[in-house]
C-alpha cells in the first residue's frame, strides 16, 4: 500500500483521543457533564444512548466543530485550544462522516473527493485525482466518479462521503449516525465499508445504534445519558449484562 493510502494511525505517545472531565454548554444549557474517555490508537469506540444525550456534541468537540468550555480534549497528543494553527492540524488528522453526507451537490463525485485535497493539502490535480480514484475503488464506487451526488443512492452518497474523508489521510475517523438517514437496504453497504476500515486498523469513534455493527467491530461500547457517560464496556459484556438500569432499558428497546 502506498504512503498516501495508509489507513493505520500515526505513531505518537498516548491514546489517539483523550477527553478529561469535559464540560460543554449551549448558552445556559449544559450538554456535556464531566465526560472522560480514552480512545486508544486502532480501537473502535461505539457511542450509543437516547436522543439528546450529547453523543453528536461529544464527537463534534473532538474535531472542534464545537468548542468545549472546561476540561481537556487532545487528539494525537495535541490539546484542542483556541489556537487556530493547532486546530487546523487536528482537523487534518480527524475525518468526519455525517448523517446527511454533506456532499457538494454541484460538484461531481471526483470533484467532491479532490476539492479539500487540492486546497487544504495543496496536492496537484493529477495526484489528488489518483488518490480519490483509489479511495473510490476502496469503497467500491469508482464507476460513479463523474456523477453528481443527486444521481446517487443514499448508500452510494455515504460511501463517497467516506472516501472523501479518507482522501485527507486522517488517522482518526468520526461517524455521526452514518446509516440513520438511509433506506434499510442501503445500510449494509455502508456498514460493510466501515467494517473494512476497522479491519484496516483505523481508529474510529462511531455514534450509531447499529448494534450488530457494534458487536462485530467495537472494542468498546459507550452508553451516554443526559450528557454523561453512564457506562462503557466490551460489546458482549455491555449487551449481556448492563450494570445501569437506564442502559438496560435502552438496550432492551434497541435489541428486541
Ligand atoms: N447548537 C445547539 N444549540 C443549542 N442546543 C443544542 C445545539 N445542538 C444540540 N443542542 C442540544 O444539546 C442536546 C444534545 O444534543 P446532541 O445532538 O449532542 O444529542 P444526541 O445524543 O446526538 O441526539 P440525537 O441522537 O437525537 O442526534 C440536545 O438537548 C440538543 O437539543
From TrEMBL:
It comes from Rhizobium leguminosarum bv. trifolii WSM597. Keywords: ATP-binding, Nucleotide-binding, Transport. This is ABC-type polar amino acid transport system, ATPase component. Transmembrane segments: none annotated. It comes from the Bacteria. Residues 17-251 form the ABC transporter domain. Belongs to the ABC transporter superfamily. GO terms for molecular function: ABC-type amino acid transporter activity; ATP binding; ATP hydrolysis activity.
Amino acid at each position: 500500500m502506498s504512503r498516501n493510502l495508509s489507513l493505520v494511525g500515526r505513531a505518537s505517545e498516548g491514546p489517539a483521543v483523550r477527553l478529561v472531565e469535559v464540560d460543554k454548554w449551549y448558552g445556559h444549557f449544559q450538554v456535556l457533564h464531566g465526560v472522560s474517555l480514552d480512545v486508544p490508537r486502532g480501537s473502535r469506540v461505539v457511542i450509543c444512548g437516547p436522543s439528546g444525550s450529547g453523543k453528536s456534541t461529544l464527537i463534534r468537540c473532538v474535531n472542534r466543530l464545537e468548542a468545549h468550555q472546561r476540561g481537556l480534549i487532545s487528539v494525537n497528543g495535541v490539546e484542542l485550544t483556541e489556537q487556530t494553527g493547532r486546530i487546523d492540524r487536528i482537523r487534518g488528522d480527524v475525518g468526519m462522516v455525517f448523517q446527511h453526507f454533506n456532499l457538494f451537490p454541484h460538484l461531481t463525485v471526483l470533484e467532491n473527493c479532490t476539492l479539500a485535497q487540492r486546497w487544504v493539502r495543496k496536492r496537484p490535480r493529477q495526484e489528488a485525482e489518483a488518490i480519490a480514484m483509489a479511495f473510490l475503488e476502496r469503497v467500491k464506487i469508482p464507476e460513479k466518479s463523474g456523477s453528481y451526488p443527486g444521481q446517487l443512492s443514499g448508500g452510494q452518497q455515504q460511501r463517497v462521503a467516506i472516501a472523501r474523508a479518507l482522501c485527507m489521510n486522517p488517522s482518526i475517523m468520526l461517524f455521526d449516525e452514518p446509516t440513520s438517514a438511509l433506506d434499510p437496504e442501503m445500510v449494509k453497504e455502508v456498514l460493510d465499508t466501515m467494517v473494512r476500515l476497522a479491519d484496516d486498523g483505523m481508529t474510529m469513534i462511531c455514534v450509531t445504534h447499529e448494534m450488530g455493527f457494534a458487536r462485530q467491530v467495537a472494542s468498546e461500547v459507550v452508553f451516554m445519558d443526559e450528557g454523561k457517560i453512564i457506562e462503557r464496556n466490551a460489546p458482549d459484556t455491555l449487551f449481556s449484562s448492563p450494570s445501569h438500569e437506564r442502559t438496560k432499558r435502552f438496550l432492551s428497546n434497541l435489541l428486541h
